[in-house]
Design brief:
The chain is of the alpha+beta class and about 220 residues long. It has a single domain, classed as minor pseudopilin epsh domain (minor pseudopilin epsh fold, 3-Layer(bab) Sandwich), CATH 3.55.40.10. About 25% of the residues lie in helices and about 25% in strands. The protein has two helices and ten strands. Strands 1, 2, 3, 4, 6 and 7 form a six-stranded antiparallel beta sheet that branches. Strands 5-8-9-10 form a four-stranded antiparallel beta sheet, covered by helices on one side.
């Protein structure tokens, strides 16, 4: 019985360490993706966005076909871009019904693969979080509340500007801080600061630039 207890304890401890490692690897993946999007927006003079899909636990890069603005508390689920999902289309139609008057055309986004070559094959450039890791919430400046389902979008603009964001990852469906990691995206440098626990998006006046040290590399 003593041997069984020791072995069981080792397995449980090992499983916890493995889950924590997967959480770190997923954080590095997102950090790398943010860096790619930020650099590409500056290099190509095109707007970029990262798409976070809560259902599939996947993220991918999309490139805009024209300059665009994303307003705070945008009523569109897709921010300042053309709606994609049925829920987003319904939100856009409802907002158009309420808000009358001329509106600027919505930017169209197309998926690109990690090397930056546009592809028409859906899903080719998708990257999945490590097994058992999920998006807990994604909070951006154009949304009036953190997103916890569907899709969330993080925008990048030419000239070296990123949208302020807090991306929270969790081990499974856990709501415990010990099983959560937050990635805070700087709007000026596009750098990502990784913090333990659930960290909400700071108000603009309280936002501080992260250290200028190099971000960890990753597999995006």
């Amino acid at each position: 019985m003593a041997i069984i207890a020791i072995v069981s304890g080792a397995v449980i401890a090992g499983s916890g360490q493995l889950a924590s490692a997967r959480l770190r690897h997923s954080s590095v993946l997102i950090t790398s993706a943010v860096r790619v999007a930020y650099s590409r927006a500056s290099a190509t003079s095109k707007s970029m966005r990262l798409v976070f899909d809560f259902e599939s636990s996947e993220l991918w890069l999309e490139e805009g076909d024209q300059p665009m603005l994303v307003q705070s508390k945008d009523t569109s689920a897709a921010g300042g871009a053309e709606a994609v999902t049925e829920a987003e289309k319904a939100a856009v139609q409802e907002s158009s019904r309420i808000v009358k008057g001329p509106q600027a055309p919505k930017a169209r986004f197309k998926e690109i693969d990690p090397s930056g070559i546009a592809t028409s094959q859906a899903g080719k450039g998708h990257k999945k979080l490590e097994r058992g890791i999920k998006f807990r919430s994604v909070e951006t400046q154009h949304d009036d509340a953190p997103r916890t389902e569907g899709r969330a979008y993080l925008y990048f603009w030419p000239g070296g500007m990123a949208e302020r964001a807090s991306i929270q990852l969790s081990i499974g469906d856990s709501k415990e801080d010990i099983d959560t990691t937050s990635l805070i995206v700087s709007p000026l440098t596009g750098r990502v600061t990784i913090k333990p626990g659930a960290v909400e998006l700071a108000k603009p006046e309280d936002d501080k630039e992260p250290s200028e040290r190099e971000d960890p590399g990753g597999g995006f």
